[in-house]
Amino acid sequence: MKESIPNILEDLLGIKADRAHLSTNQELDELTKITHLGRNKAGQKAQSPAPTSDPISSPPPKETEPPASPPQWAQDSPVPQPPPQPVETTTSSIPDIPESEPDPHQRSASLLTLFTVIRLNRKNFQLAITLPDREPCSCAFKNGILVDDYFTDQTNGTADQERSVLLVDAEQSFVVGMAKELTEHEKQFLMLTAATGKQAVRILESKKIDLLITGLKMPEMDGFELLAYIKTHFPALPSLVISTFDYPAMHARIKQLGARQHLLKPINSPALAKHILDILGQLPGKKSIKGMALADFITLLGLSTTSCFVDIFLQGKDHFLCRVEKGFIQGISCGSAKGELAIRETLSWNEFLITFRQTPF
Fold first, then answer.
1. Which of 141, 278, 310, 348 could form a disulfide with 322 if both were Cys (CB 3.0 to 4.6 A apart)?
2. Model's pTM, two decimal places?
3. What integer best gives the mean pLDDT of the chain?
């Protein structure tokens, strides 16, 4: 009789699913590859038989001569006898090893494993946290990557060392000289430079920048266009403007585009460094983690070890509910479906809302 297909989700989540609906489609194969939940086979491996001696190849035993009798004078003298040696027994006493208490989460998958199974690293969604012991937040993910600015506390005192400042200006003598003079503050921030607005955009798209300093007159993309781009694509990024002229209309437009300050040339490096440190210090101990993957985000916020309800809402679909205890899944449902069948319902979902909320008990 053909063996029945193993219930993967019963091993994965510790939840019994309807075996009548099991199949061997692509999802089951992927679940098996992703989870890596190996199980020890029942019983022990068969022991190899002990090697036996070959009577043909073994040499015949040598005949031993009886020991020679001692001389008569030695027989008359008393010979001390050695003390009796203890006889070794073939059986040994093995102390009983106390069994450890069973782990209630031993057969449950983690929340991160579930998120991998339903392919959140390929999907777009909004994530909201409403737990009482954490600051409420709502942020967007695209293809499993955080695309909103989310600031976390840095308690190790090294947040300033990881900050970057981008200086953009067409006057290369000013840019090179200022970057060289500001190296004395390399423990507080890293200075990057660009000659045009387009070069600055490429840097902003590839690196984490904490402050933008730009001139106004530049080829390809001038300072006003760069500020407009920053306002649309990086609204949380603070900016400074450095220029030779200060007309009222120019100053009003710069302020409208969101620049923090308008500085006039010539300016020396100590004065510019003071403005930089003042802006970077407005959020002491804070750092944006924009661009972080979902698994790292969940781990950083401690959600991978918490107890809560995780909901997934998609318009026109049943509510997906997962109960988590200390980071391990204890129950899954989606409408009337349970366990594996509930997970199957979410495999094709995209553009949905995920919430972390407190359990009622």
1. 310
2. 0.42
3. 76
